[in-house]
Specification:
Elements: H1 13-21, H2 30-39, H3 46-53, H4 57-67, H5 81-88, H6 90-107, H7 116-136, H8 142-151, H9 154-162, H10 165-168, H11 177-188, H12 192-202, H13 207-215, H14 229-246, H15 251-264, H16 269-290, H17 301-329
Helix pairs in contact: 2-3, 2-6, 3-5, 4-5, 4-6, 5-6, 6-8, 7-8, 7-14, 7-16, 8-13, 8-14, 9-12, 12-13, 13-14, 14-15, 15-17, 16-17
Amino acid sequence: MDSTGIPDQMLPPELQARLRQCTTLPSPPKVAVKIIELAKDPEVDIEDVVRVLMIDPALSAKILRMANSPLYGHQKKVKDLTKATMVIGFNGVLSLALSFSLIKTFRREEGAGLNHLWFWRRAIMNGAACRTLGEACHRKDLEQLFTPAFLQDIGMLVLDQIDPALYAHLNLDRLPHQRLVDYEMERLGTTHATVGAWLLAQWHCPEELVQAIDYSDRPHHIPPQTDQTLFFHCVACSGMLTDLCTTEPGDEQLVEISEYFQTTLNLASLAFLEVLKKVQAVGRELGSLFGIDTADGEHDPHALFEKARELLVLRNIGIDQQLKTLTAQV
């Protein structure tokens, strides 16, 4: 285990060396460093947060827009950062501010190979999906969930800096995320999730954020029955939901996420439909904050739900028939 908390064997030594030697990797902006420090301070208060936010006028404007968005349903217009912090919540503002400030840095560092429009659209939809899942699971930490989901693919931006050819030939709009992960494992011996977690750990981001990103593409490694188990599963599931909303999902994908909903997240079948519908609406709202249209390529949630339900019925019938055959043979 290295000083970042990421297992050594998950980042091959050659890749670690390339990452450390890369002169084009951005450093966290001053405001992000201050936000990270505040997040670790148990005695921090609202005024401390407001003073840091005021360092970056663009960041302040985004927080105010977020507080006034339909996501919070606040009837009166929020005009100052103190009120915005009260509306969104203390930890929520810190999480959103960290997301916005880090992403602002990376948007200035576009590489030559990765489709950045695809990347930011996916990041927004990941955040929307995780926020919606958290709501369905009756969690209160919706903004804390948003941040690791929003940043879970940040390792792709890092890898694009050191190897622009890595993603240049891929049609990411149509490529299921798991196939992308398999491709990275074959080429690099690790994945963008672990690279992203490594980078944020280097920046001394909160451990929960680092771990959530590291687990995002390998949910079967999430430790069971801890205080953070459901948190990590919501982040991992957000990427699966984004795949359903933005690519052409295969039958196996639909069955996998339907079962994930019911067995891992303990959500009813109908919750799947409601989450699918709300993810797209929340994605459009968040997209307006970033000037990115997330509606392109949206799928009909009712059609996805009906197909998933049909596939599960057929699968269960097949299992029943297999059991009857085995019983008859005995």
